[in-house]
Structure formats: structure tokens, C-alpha cells
Amino acid sequence: MYDKNITSMHLDVLKEIGNIGAAHAATSLSTLLNKKIDMKVPKVEMVSFDDMMDLAGGPESVVAGIFLRIAGDVSGSMFFVLPVEQANRFIRRLIQDENFDFQTEGFSEIGASAMQELGNILSGSYLSALSDFTNLKIYPTVPSLCIDMVGAIISFGLVEVSHYSDYVIVIDTAINEEEVINEESVKGHFFLLPDPDSFKVIFQALGVS
Amino acid sequence: MINQGQVVKVGIADMNIVKAPNTIRTSGLGSCVGVVLYDEKSKIAGLIHVMLPDSNLGRIENMNIAKFADTSIPVMIDQLKLEGIQPYKLRAKIAGGAQMFQFSSNKDSMRIGPRNVEAVKAYLKKYSIPIIAEDIGGNSGRTIEFDPITSLLNIRTVKQGVRDI
Fold it and tell me: Which domain holds residue B100?
């Protein structure tokens, strides 16, 4: 099921999932920050692990990563990855502290907590939209936050898939703030990585076999 | 002396061999473990980016052997043998195996970093390769680069700076 038999129709279904989920999450983000947020057309790709790192900006780029596992009818990993500069801007705005910086030693607890809450709200809106759309039960774990190299963060979410395959199907939606110059590398991403067994469940729920 | 070597990059679940003056590097090690096997005299080194401890965890055939500690280490030893290095001359340096996220759950897959380290150490022991230096565990991502000329492993982290082991 995983490597074979995936048609363009299946990819379209997954794209729609990325679209619905991320649209809700981006709306929540926009409301929270009182700021316009751009969302790109979702990409669904089957990529090697190395390409997955490149999607997120290269293995060494420093990001604020929120990771959570999903359980219930479908299982998988979800990441919300922000370049650290962008995360700083969001959190400064949220806690109204212009000096906040994730890259300084011992950054304030409240900033970390705000980031975690941001991840909580965004992943919550992504997944509840997905759950409504598919009629599947989806339970997220409490998100955890990590500021580090994207390779180190994302490889953790690939562990489950790597038991089955050297490739991963990733549902990737990029977001950006409107005023910021549209640099290809400076983007936030929602990555949804369903576990291999879960694709069948998702396709069945949406009437695609 | 100016090092005019090139940097050979090793991806995730990948492996390669270099000769001095080239150096070898892998980026963004989280729970994965970077295993360097080297011979000081011939200045040849192999680097493996191990992702999982045991190929029995794999559920399909024709898997990438570089992904697992148990399959990659013997293959690397054989490849170094083809370069003329007898296994008893090999030394190892390892880095990685971090726990990037803290979870309340004790599910085995959540502590993949420590399990990778345990497996790498067990297989190095099995093939009698001494570990000269290690930088393992913690909760930081690492980028590592090995220079066969000095036999030093350079480790860069976001939170704790740079050091050589």
C-alpha cells in the first residue's frame, strides 16, 4: 500500500487534507497574531529522508519545532516548524516583549510556553478540521517544543516510517507572514506524516480505494 | 598546511568512506548516531548515519543497510577491508543519540536515541573495535565532521557550541 498503488487521485485526496487542515490552522494563527498569514498550495510528495530535510530548509537550519504524535483511527507524526527568526517575531508579538529571542541562553519561560501553546492551538485546529472532514477519530498527544537543527527534529518523526520504507509521504503546507519578503527559505511548515498503515484508513474514510 | 580536501557529505541512513585530505560530514543528527570508523595510519575513515538499532525492526525486504546499526557496521568493516585496512586497526568515535523531545510516555519508539547508542556500542564491541571518544545523549542536535588527518571529530550544536573529540 505504501510504496505502490498510490495514484494521483490518492495524492489529490492527501492534498485536500493538507489544504483543509492548514487553512484552519493558518486562520487560528492569523487570529492569534492579528496579522495576515499567507498559505501556499499544499504539496504532497513522496520523498527520501534527505529530501524531507531539504523541504524544511536543510538539515542544519535552526528552527522552532513543535512535534506531536497522533493516535486514534489514524496514527502519525505532525510537525509545525518555524524558522527561528519567524518564531521570534510571532512570540514577541504574543507576549509583547521586543527582546525575546529563542537563540539566547535561557530564554524566558513565558516565551517557550507561548510557543508551546501556539503549537497546541495550531495543531489542534489542523487536526480537528481533518477529523471533521474524514469523520475519523484523531487524538493528538501534548505537543512538545524543541529549538534545534531541523534535521535533528524531523528525523525523530521519520523513525516510525523508516521501519517500512526509505521514503516518506509528506503533506506539506508552507505559511508565511504577508509583509515579510517572500524568501523561499524563510517559511513555516506544517508537516503531516501519516504512519504507513494509516493511508488505507484515510482513503477509505474518504471513499477512495 | 592548508587543507585542500573536500567535504564528503553523508545523508540520513547513509554511509561513505574518505581518504585524507578529504573530510567527511553528516548534518542534523538527532536521535540518529554518527559512527566513524577510522585508521590513524592510512588516514582513511568511514562514517555511518545510523537511524535505527536493529534491522529486525524493518518490515520489508531490500532495506537500506546503512539505516541500521546491526547491518551497517559489518558492511563498513568489509568496505574498509577492501581499502586495505585490517579490522583490528580500526578505531571508532561516535556522536548523537539525543532525546530531542521529552514525553511522559515511555513507549519504546520514543527513546530511540538511547536505543541506537546501545546497539552501536554492542556491535562495535562484537567486532572488537574500541571507542576512542564519544559525545552521546543529551537533547541537542549535532552536526559532525571527521578529519582523517588529525583523527578528530568536530561536533557542532546549536545550544552548546563547537568542540572536537
Answer: 7-164
Q: Which spans in chain B are helix H?
A: 69-82, 112-126
| pLDDT at A185 exceeding the cut of 60 | no
Q: Nearest CB to A163: which of B12, B31, B57?
A: B57
The reply to whether residue B30 touches residue A151, judged by beta carbons under 8 angstroms, is: yes
**A56 burial level (CB within 10 Å; 0-12, 13-18, 19+):** buried
pLDDT: is A181 or A48 the higher one? A48
| Cβ-defined contact of B101 to A151 (cutoff 8 Å) | no
B143: domain CATH number?
A: 3.30.1330.200
Tens-place pLDDT, residues B23-69: 999 999 999 999 999 999 999 999 999 998 888 766 666 678 888 99
Question: What pLDDT, on the 0 to 100 scale, is given for residue B63?
Answer: 75
Task: For residue A67, give the CATH number of its domain.
Answer: 3.40.1550.10
Mutation target among B101, B103, B135, B136 for the A interface, most CBs of A within 10 A: B101
Dist CA B31 CA B27 (whole Å): 12
A160 touches chain B (CB under 8 A): yes
Please choose, from the candidates A112, A121, A15, A18, the residue with its C-alpha nearest in 3D space to the C-alpha of residue A68.
A121
Asked if the Cβ–Cβ distance from B30 to A153 is below 8 Å, we say yes
- Chain B residues bordering chain A (beta-carbon distance below 8 Å): 11-14, 27-32, 51-52, 57-60, 63-64, 67, 98, 100-105, 109, 112, 139-143, 158-159
